[in-house]
Every structure is written in C-alpha cells, then in structure tokens.
Amino acid sequence: MQLFAEGFSRPVEVAAVFTTLFLQYKALHYIAKCCIAFFAESFARARLNSGVKQLKGSLSGWDEELLTKVNTFYAGKFEALIRMIRLVAVDSEENYETIGVVEEITRAVAENMEINVTILKSCIDDTCKTFLNSKYSTHQTEELVKALDADKWQEVNVKREHESMVEYLHDVDMKELPQSEVNDTLDHIVSNGNSFFLVNSALTVLKIIYGYVRMAQNFPNIAYECAVKLLEIIGMYNIKSSNLVLGAGAVQLNKMKNITAKHLAMSAQAVDFFYGEIEYIKGKLELYLGEKQKLLLESDFANLKKDLLKHRNDIYKKLSSILLSCGSDLLDTMRESEYRDDTGKVSEFISSLTTMLQQMYAVLVRILPRPHIELIYQDTFNELSSKLRSLKAEIKVAGTKGFEQLARDLHELEAGVDSLGIKETSKGIRTQIGEMVEEFGSKYR
After folding, report:
1. Which of 60, 261, 349, 416 falls 20 to 30 Å from 123 in CA-CA distance?
2. Are 330 and 352 a contacting pair, CB within 8 Å?
3. What is the pLDDT of residues 386-439, one digit of tens each?
C-alpha cells in the first residue's frame, strides 16, 4: 500500500519495483493485475518520455544475480510480458500512449535479459492493431459523429493546443506538441500563412488527425493502418458535412432552421483547411511507412484532395447561384419597367440588387480569402453581364426623362459593384453598364 501511495508522486520508480516483483515471482496473474492497474493510472499521469528514460535506467541497474535468475526462469518464454501488454490494452481504453510506455518497458526488460524479442514484438503489434480497430477508431468515429450532430456551423475560438497540432503536422522533425505558457484563445487558426475560421466539428477532426499521426509515430508497425483510418475520418467528414450544409440535411433533420451564406462559407473554410493540410499529413505519415505502403496510399491521398476540392468548389458555385438567382430576378424587373419619367431617385429593384451584392460580400469577406470571393463573384458578374446585354433590346425608354432615370439606375448599379473593391473581377459587368449608358444616351440625350 505504501508503494501505491508513493506511486502517485514517484510512478516511474515504483513501477520499476512492481516490474521486478512481476518478473521474479510465479504468481503471474495476481501480480500482473496489480502492475497493470498501477501502470494504467500512474503512467497516464507521468510525462512519458522522461518516464521511459528513468525506467530504463532503473532496469539497467538491476542486480546481475537477479537478472540471471529471471533469465533462467523464463528461458525465452514471454508469458508474463505478453500478459502485461494484453492487460494494458484492455485496461487503458483509449490511452494508447500507455501501451507505448509498456512497449518501452518490455523491450528494456528483453534487452537486459539478452533474449530474442521477435515474439514480444509480434505480440505488441497485434495488440496495437486490435486496440486501433476495436477501441480507438470506434471512439474517434463516435466523437466525429457527435461533433457533426451538434455543430451549428458558426466559428468557434481556437485553443493554443489546436495551433500546436498544426505546427506538429507541418514539422517532420517534431515529435511532441510544442508547449506554450499562453492559454488564451484565438478566433482563427493559421496554416501555411493563411487564416482559417473553423467550426467545432473541424477542430474535432484536427484533434483526431493528430491522434492518428501520433499513434503512427509511437507504433510505426501499424502506421499504414493509422493512415487508412485517418483518410477514412477526413473522407467521412467531407461527405457528412456536405450532406448537412450544402445538401441542407441539417434543416431536414430539424437541427437548424435554415442554411445561410455564412454557414456555407464556414463549411467551405473547414474543407479548404483540410485540403491544405493533406500534403503535410502525408509527409508526416510517410516517415513511418514503407515504400510499398507509400505507393498504396498515394492514390488515396490524391483522391481525397480531389473530393475536398470538389466539395469546396461546389459550395462556391452554390454561393454564386444564390447571388445570380436574386440578381436575375431583380434585373427582370427592369424588363417589365417602362422608363418614362425621372423620379429623382434610384429604382427600388436596383437598390435591392446593389444591397444584396454588398451584404453577401460583407459576410464572405470576414470568412473567405479575397481570391476565393472573387471566384464566387466572377461567375455572378459574368451571368449578370450577359443578362444586361440581352435586356438592352427589351428595355422601354420614353424620351430624355426616361433615359435620365435609366442612367441613374445603371450608374447606381455600377457604383454598387465598384464598391466591392474587386475591380478586375467586375470589369466585364462595369464595361457592359457603360456601353448601355452610351447606347441609350446616343438615342435619347
């Protein structure tokens, strides 16, 4: 009991004592249970790297006579060590790092006993694979589904921990998360020089990605399985988020009242973030993969990038179609109107059109990069420009007063487009407006 009490302050030294007892006596089952219960509790609390080093130091200092007795007793049999590994896998639930500590312990024991570790290695690999497939992956999938179900597709604060995870994925030499004394939160995360505003489910996926890469790092022999599971998670997020937001599934399931332009933009940000992270994730995993495994995964990574890019572009097309639908309906009013008198003010449908263009821009510019916004507006302006061209022959203008009203409306539309600050993108529609003013002016001035 005293050893257990001391274990919480000195877990590594006490664990070494228990391991010694465990190897020295024949009461394997009982002592194994005591050891494992202690390992799962105390090692989860200890800093793993320093703990393993200290424990290795303790093992290397064992009494030679004791080591001789242990070696003679087991004579190449690994029942005790194998039992310990399997029990830890059962007791540790999702704490795979505990298994990593036990792997270090058992390898240290094997080295001191000067015995072949092939059987031991096979047992560790099998245990890790079982743990990955039956416990860890199931838990991560459940976490993702839970996060998606609860997500309202609004930006959330980013913790320093999330920022550190991105740094870890981008640096192939980094083995641990960089520690920061600052615990404040940010409203965005920076990756490759770009700022991303992320929803809660995206941060959950980032954490899951980090977990799989760490597992591959800790257990290189199951790195391929970790990579496969990681790809499945990102692919699952891509499909389910598309169904919920772009496909309006969240509305159909009564999770949200409607899907707005902001919801779409936030979903696009998440997808674009993971699209940019793929190459970094791939590079990190490849440190632990064989050449054949890299080749097997090459097409999977490439296909996932294509799927993410398509999803993002589909969202942009949806945003563009919202703009175009509203804009076309309002411009149709111009066809139905008859310009007879100069009212001295801009027509209501033109005011509505410029307001809609500006309000959408105000929403998107807070979330999306400017080049992406220009892509969205490019399609819209091209279609609206074609719409104006087709309307020229149908607009009814009666005399100079009617032309002055039309010119006022067209100049207001040009000013509204110009106010967005995307000169190159809006060049076509501004040119078309100018041509219309000139053409009608030559007739009615």
Report:
1. 60
2. yes
3. 888 888 878 888 888 888 888 898 899 999 999 998 888 888 888 888 888 888
